[in-house]
Amino acid sequence: MSDHEGNGVNRRKVLECMTWAGTGVLWTISGGVPRSLGLVDAAKAAEPAGLTFLQISDSHVGFDKPANPNALGTLEEAIAKINAIPNKPSFMIHTGDITHLSKAAEFDNAEKIISQAKLDVHYVPGEHDFLDEEVKFYKDRYGKDTKGPGYYSFDAGGAHFIGLVNVVDLKAGGLGNLGAEQLEWLEDDLKGKSKSTPIVVFAHIPLWTVYPQWGWGTEDGAKALEYLKGFGSVTVLNGHIHQVMQKVEGNVTFHTARSTAFPQPAPGTAPSPGPMKVEDSKLRGLLGIASVNFKQGDQRLAIIDTPLQG
Amino acid sequence: MTFANLRGLGLALAIAAVALLQLGVAGARAQDINVTIDNFTFTPPELNVKVGDTVTWTNHDDIPHTVVSAGKFRSKTMDTDNSFSFTFTSAGDYKYFCSLHPHMTGMIKVE
Question: What ipTM goes with this model?
Answer without folding.
Answer: 0.80
